[in-house]
Amino acid sequence: MTMRKFRQAQWEEPIIFELSREDRVGFSVPALEPEIADAMDDIAGLVPNGMLREKPPGLPEVSELEVLRHFIHLSQMNYGVNSGRFYPLGSCTMKYNPVINEVLAGHPKVTGIHPDQDEASIQGLLAMLHELKQGYLEITGMDDASLQPAAGAHGEYLGVLLIRAYHADRGDLEGRTEIIIPDSAHGTNPATAIMAGFKTIEVPSNEDGGVDLEALASVAGPQTAGLMLTNPNTLGIFDSNISKIAGIVHDVGGLMYYDGANLNAIMGKCRPGDMGFDVVHVNLHKTFSTPHGGGGPGSGPVGVKSFLADYLPVPDIVESAGVYSLDWDRSKTVGKIHGYHGNVGPMLRAYTYMVTMGGEGLKEASELSVLNSNYIAAKLKDVKGYSLPFAEGKPRMHEAVLSAEKMSEETGVRALNVSKKLLDYGLHAPTTYFPLIVPEALMIEPTETEPVEVLDEFIEAMKEISDLAYSDPDDVLGAPRMTVVGKLDEARAAHPRTICLSWKTYCRMIP
Fold it and tell me: What are all long-range contacts of 190-199, with beta carbons under 8 Å and residues at least 24 apart?
């Protein structure tokens, strides 16, 4: 096949101050009206002399056209899910976000709402949030939920606080000191448990990539507050022993917590609430299409079984005779964990996604994401230098984790170098070195929207990189060469002293 090659000349974009020319004007500010000018003078007179500037700030003097070109050029140097060729960023489900979601989330009738408005004046917004919650409960199989958490880790924290409140209410908190976490878990899981005041106990994976049942049984006991689990896990493997796992934890009085970061693989196919989970968080910004790269915006609602509902945050949005209101009556609530109603923008995007896709559409999205992941895994697992650890012959779900361990041992080309070389093909790198239980890990998650032609380009690029690693390893070790910024010195790039945030101390990262 003919693969699209990415060839881009290297350049260094000047900072805007370097474009400045004396007396060049981009915008003319009209003179102040006399009464406003007098008022400004009066205000200026209140400022201590030592805090007054001796001369105007040194702003860049550039034309409007230069400003426009400069910032658009900077934006083109970034990689976007809607501008790049492929975005296989595993563990984040960075889906394509349909434009209609953005249009509605940015509608003035939404963005113009103030959260302190009276309930009667925001009935449409409350109705949307209430319907979103009902859809969430149907998809997850839970009985009640809070939409407040602002992201996945925030949802995790609420979930563990609910587990803590449950045991405290039963007078059993002093003895329930441990949260069990598999070795394949997301890194936020142990951090969350510790923040909530628990000790974490790690259990290993078995040869099939699932939880080792004997190891779990050996650590579960009266000290167990709960278990945090992702299913499918970070290896992209669905743990078929989930009912046995839930039984072991419940038999000792612990609760089951579901990390819903990987819900994209099972949406419409099976529900965490039917697997034995008591608490669930779902990343609306992942599974339901708000791109989350760069740190936001996010939303991580938490669902619970009915016996935990009284502990949920307040207020809840309730409906009576077609009128929506805020209910603050939860007798055992853990309290409020977010201002107002949570992050409404991602919620509206998620609601739009659910409504436009419908139940069958959500189900098909899961099926296609699993199909795409298995297609890539099947094509690459036997390519020289790569392997597919754990559960040989067992299908993956929404993501597949390859290992470049053999390539590293035989050529010196590591997973990081493979990821860097992919940039020369115009392809975003997958998550590298995660999960930690896979040496030289490359976590590949194509999502459901990528056509087979794009998957084939990625597969062909990975094969070419393998060939280069064995025939000309220096070519891969020196990558990337075709990007705006070439290969960085990893140690210097991570060192805080090399981060120059002021134009006055501007420096370029040159190896």
Answer: 191/153, 192/153, 192/156, 192/157, 192/159, 192/160, 192/228, 193/160, 193/228, 195/157, 195/160, 196/157, 196/160, 196/161, 196/163, 196/164, 197/164, 198/160, 198/164, 198/225
